[in-house]
Amino acid sequence: AGSKLREVFDKINNLLSGKAVQTEGHTVSVTQHPQGLEFVYYKLAEKFVKHGEGEVSFHHDSAFPIAVVLSGIWELHPRVGDIFLAHLHKKCPYAVPFYPARKEGTPMEEYQRMLGYEVHDSKVEEQDHFLKRMSGMIRLYAAIIQLRWPYGNKQGAHPHGLSYGWRWLAQMLNLEPLADVTAMLLLDFLEVCGSALVKQYGIQFWKTMFFIQKSYIPRIEAVTSAGQMGCLSRLKSFVQKCLQEKEIPVPKGILTPSFWRT
């Protein structure tokens, strides 16, 4: 509910503003320790990324309420946004976007961690789990760049708005595609913020979609084996449908004005 989200936002904002906040029967304030505020910035930013790789990866719609709160907090407390991006880029280099290359002498385990895989006791997480986590984080990022906290003053620009999404898309299409990962991330990104990007960039965006269809999808196909075609097929049909209908569907779960009256 919108009212619940406002409560969450106010509590976080009050805490970061140095006010005393009640939580689990305790009263806490960042002023209780010289590094209190820095610690809370760090842990809060980390928690938002964890929401992306956890909650959003399983429930795509949850990207929007989480993103709108973070967007509002970012506007009032820019440090949270900076640290959020640092956590996000470390956990999901594809959010930069960046595909780390393996340098000579780098142990395989360390390299897998650089690629975003979780490695415990030399055991690497399964590909499906890895892709799900990356998907959740990209979806959260794609939601953040298009949303603003509706109760802010709206005077300044969005702290990390759609121009960053446009840049992400352009940089992504300049990278050599990776099997599995590239198709999935492009689809996630376009599903979540494609409709916002087309409103902002119009004809330029459609040119990009045409480029994806004609030039980039064949390049993804070239590096994709028969068993990895699922996501690529979904990307193909999504792009084709959008180009045919000359519109990008509004993402499922987007927060409408009526949501804020609940």
In summary, what is this structure?
This protein is mainly alpha-helical and 262 residues long. The chain is built from ten helices and four strands, in the order H-E-E-H-H-H-H-E-E-H-H-H-H-H.
Give the full name of the CATH homologous superfamily: GLE1-like
The largest sheet, given as strand count, sense and whether it forms a barrel, is:
2 strands, antiparallel
Low-confidence stretches: none
- Secondary structure tally, helices: 10
Give helix % range.
55-70%
Order of helices and strands: HEEHHHHEEHHHHH
The CATH topology turns out to be: Serine Threonine Protein Phosphatase 5, Tetratricopeptide repeat
Q: How many β-strand runs?
A: 4
CATH class: Mainly Alpha
Strand residues, percent = under 5%
Shape: globular
Question: If you compute it from the alpha carbons, what radius of gyration comes out, rounded to the nearest whole angstrom?
Answer: 20 Å
Strand order, main sheet: write it out. 1-2
Structural class: mainly alpha
Spatial gap, N to C terminus: 5 Å
* Average of per-residue pLDDT values: 93
- The appropriate CATH architecture is Alpha Horseshoe
- Overall structural domain count: 1
Keywords: Coiled coil, Cytoplasm, mRNA transport, Nuclear pore complex, Nucleus, Protein transport, Translocation, Transport
GO biological process, one term: protein transport
Function: Required for the export of mRNAs containing poly(A) tails from the nucleus into the cytoplasm. May be involved in the terminal step of the mRNA transport through the nuclear pore complex (NPC).
Protein name: mRNA export factor GLE1
